[in-house]
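QA checklist item 7 of 12: single-chain prediction sanity check.
[x] sequence parsed
[x] length recorded as 178
[x] structure emitted
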Amino acid sequence: MDKYIKAPLIDYEIEELRAGDYVYITGTIYTARDAAHERMYEAIRKDEPLPISLKNNIIYYMGPSPARENRPIGSAGPTTASRMDKYAPAMIDLGLKGMIGKGKRSEEVRSAIFENGAVYFAAVGGAGALLSKSITKSEVIAYDDLGTEAIRKLEVKNFPVIVVIDAQGNNLYEMVLK
């Protein structure tokens, strides 16, 4: 079923999403990959402020290529989500409500999603050029020294994703295997 939602996320909209739903996101999302996650995780451990509020936000596991002429961003395909699994539960516990990546997640992440009413979306790997067309604005807001792994604030319009793990703990990948 196709669903259209706004970001930052609203709890009742997350609760209505089901594994397998096609979702189109409009609003503000953030990018962060391994290096940015490691820095944020260290800040959490030291009880230091984070460069972004996690509350109700979505993090897209993505490092873009350079922007093309008249575009805010280059190719913007997803990174393998499991690389962020050691950091994700702490961030979900602090209010992160959505993650976009590709591939499977650990049982610890699935549990954190279920316990906190969050959601994990997949974007289609290999479709970075197509996905970038849904990004209307891109701005580096933290960790500029990390280059493509810096945290970016993105404005998106009808950004296409699929619900993989919903707030009830259902996992699309497991459902397909059954």
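[x] summary fact logged: The first strand starts at residue 2 and ends at 7.
[ ] second reviewer sign-off
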